[in-house]
Amino acid sequence: MSRMLYLRLIGAIVFGLGGWRLGSFISEQYPPMEGSLWIGLFAICGAGIGIALAPYPQRWLRRKIKEVPGHTFLAATVGLLIALLLSAILALPLSLLPGMWGKVSPAIAFLVLSYLGISIMVLRSRDVGPILGTTPSVATMMSDGRDGRVILDTNSIIDGRIADIIETGFVHGTLLIPKFVLDELHYIADSPDPLRRTRGRRGLDILTRLQRESDVPVEISDVDFEGVREVDAKLVELAKALRCPIVTNDVNLNRVASLQGIRVLNVNELANALKPVVLPGEEMRLRIVQEGKELGQGVGFLDDGTMVVVEGGRRYLNNEINVVVNRVLQTGAGRMIFAHPQH
Questions:
Q1: 111-130 in b/e burial notation, b at 16+ Cβ within 10 A?
Q2: Which residues pair with 150 in a beta bridge?
Q3: Which residues pair with 327 in a beta bridge?
Q4: Could you tell me if 250 and 192 lie in one domain?
Q5: pLDDT of residue 30
Q6: 240 class by beta-carbon count within 10 Å (0-12 exposed, 13-18 middle, 19+ buried)
Q7: Residue among 248, 241, 294, 246 at smallest CA distance from 269
Q8: Residue-wise pLDDT tens digits, 251-265
Q9: Are residues 187 and 78 located together in one domain of the fold?
Q10: Which one, of 202, 201, 241, 203, lies nearest residue 221 by Cα?
Q11: Where are the beta strands (DSSP E) in the chain?
Q12: pTM of the full predicted structure?
């Protein structure tokens, strides 16, 4: 018997019993309606409602459980257990209250204590982490995520630099690879376009390298969002649900995520920040490898890929010369250095 059939059967039993009890109550309150007919009708209607509605709460509950970080779920469970213990202690004295209060007070106390226990434990999960053995790492505190996870998008995986960054030890926590990102990588790797196919296979190779060689855990998440088609939109929804940052070098995803309050770790911005500082008047050794756009210009590149435009450098094409930096221009695509030959 399938799981869905079990759920429908349980729903039919629960709602059927509820309908039977409601029919009995109505028959008792209104004597002209006595008889098993009304009880049977309410029971059948309740069973029908249970069969129809049973799968939907289960699907919603499974999706929500997947979205809750592990240490938060544990903290909520501990809060509920504490509430149960306190409710059991208070049940006897509360049941001695006169009249109806003696019957409803234990239930009210349980509901109130459960709400307070779960809320307090979830909100203070970081503080009680050492007691529960679920203390977030330093990387967790440095990121917006609750459990030190960062989400990798397709472009950052294909780019490959994230693997080198991780090997340096600057990234801790868990690398989260959504299943829909993995599916997109497989789709690109199977593309008839040779360039796209090469990029997709490179991304899969990078993932394999991360799983085999990296000390940082790699987790494949099955969480998906029905009704959301775009991969970037799914990444944003997942980041909001898990409250963790996205690693990317996609400018559009960077803008969309930032507008929605999601922290973005941009690989390109990191690379630009780590480039050596070059000041006007500084001298350097440079090889002129190509002509510039303007008349007489030559172009060379530093070891980190920064472009250096040399005024009057065309005559030194394919030669290595000493140049003096005139100015440094920071653009959205990176940094450009303008220089002239040293005389």
A1: eebbeebbeebbeebbebbe
A2: 175
A3: 338
A4: yes
A5: 59
A6: middle
A7: 248
A8: 888 888 888 888 888
A9: no
A10: 241
A11: 149-152, 174-178, 218-221, 246-248, 264-266, 283-287, 290-291, 298-301, 307-310, 320-331, 334-341
A12: 0.47
Q: Which structure tokens are listed for 229?
A: 């088609």
Chain position carrying tokens 């960062």:
150
φ/ψ of 334, rounded to 5, equals 145, -155
Question: Do 148 and 245 touch, CB atoms closer than 8 A?
Answer: no
For 9-37, the pLDDT digits (tens) are: 766 677 667 766 666 666 666 555 455 66
The CATH number assigned to the domain holding 188 equals 3.40.50.1010
Query: Are the C-beta atoms of residues 322 and 294 closer than 8 Å to each other?
Result: no
Token match 């809320």: residue?
119
Q: Where are the alpha helices (DSSP H) in 68-169?
A: 70-95, 101-123, 125-132, 138-142, 154-159, 161-167
Count of structural domains, the chain: 4
Where b means 16+ CB within 10 Å and e means fewer, 4-22 reads eeebbeebbeebbebbbeb
CA-CA distance, 91 to 96, in Å (whole number)? 9
pLDDT number for residue 137 = 40
Q: What is the DSSP letter of 336?
A: E
Parallel, antiparallel, or unpaired: how do β-strands 174-178 and 218-221 relate?
A: parallel
Question: Which tokens in the block code for residue 330?
Answer: 């920071």
Domain span holding position 99: 68-135
For residue 281, what are the contacts with CB-CB under 8 A and spacing of at least 6? Answer: 324, 325
